[in-house]
Amino acid sequence: MTGKERLLNALSGGKPTVTPVAVDYMLLYLAERIEGAYVAAYRPRLEREGRVRLDPDEDVEIRAQALLQAHACFQEQDDWLQVSGVPIHEVLGQRELVLEGDQVFEVDRVAGARRQLLLDGQESKTEEMRQRFERTGQFGLDQAELSQEMVQHRESSRADRGNLRLVEILAGQVGDDLFVYTGGSAPFWLLYDLLGFEGMMTALHDAPKLVFEIMETSLEATLEYAQAFKNAGGHGIRIEECLVSADMISPRMYERFVLPYEERLFEQLRRMGLKSILYFCGDVMPRLPALRQLPIDALMVEESKKNFVIDIGEVRAAVGPDLCLMGNIDAYGIIEKATRAELAAEVARQVRVAGSSGAFIVGLGSPLTLGTPPERVDLLIGNTRYGASGGDA
User: Fold this and answer.
1) Are 244 and 258 in contact (CB under 8 A)?
2) pLDDT tens for residues 318-338?
3) pTM for the whole thing?
């Protein structure tokens, strides 16, 4: 079986001979390597000319190859590939790369925005992302201002991820072998983007109509992107749901504001033919009776932390044998820091307690820490596929 076939088998409730393994948030973990490969592709021209105006079609091809080159740091390949859209052609066409000394800058000739690539060896952040985090929570509950911000959020999202040619290229190159997926957010998340944490929590009590309006906007935008991703050749989407767990909001608030939108979102994704994975952050245990009823293809949960315990065996017992689960191996305590024997033992334990009675995919409870060597990921994948001896080879 190919990696894609293994994952599709598990997501459909099957149990392939070799347990699938899928490490999420690779675009975050590999961000430096991706950007490094991207800059390296332009550097010869930059050194000759000093600046290069981006050709959108060429640039997307370069981005695709940079992503694949970044994955080459692993000796073992897991069973999926995370891909996202890139800015629309119009946005890319107004950008250029500039070499100043040994530093490379991306410049928007129209907007005047400027950012340094490979900033001090760390992932550089776009000006748009910095502005977003600076804005969070500064809108209060002024209806007109928030309505305008929702329009801008929708247009910004469409512009930032509107060019799915990158998905088409990568799905064409690796889509027969790997499950090509993207990430998305559940509707509740937009509340945090627009209102901040305190504003979001108070709005549930003080402005419920506004909450529903924001979530309708978010749902529509997520479904629009998901359909475009499917049309571009993508196979599935991982939806992240945060700040709705039992340690955050009451069961009544969850059932009123969150659950109906989760149901609508995953029903539509299923109709599209996209496989869906719900990554539920926080204390998931009290929410499992509701989550097991959702039309999702797999459930992914955090590892134990923040004063709550999430044992993947107990999750299996709560949801029953029919729902595919993704493992919640501790990204820091096990993947980065544990001994090789401890890592092998935890992989084997999770497969045993969660995979013996239902479909199971080995995975992590949180994104890889940036200090994790690629060899540790190889060890995880090797132990899943070949057992402790093969993984240690």
Assistant:
1) yes
2) 999 999 999 999 999 999 999
3) 0.91
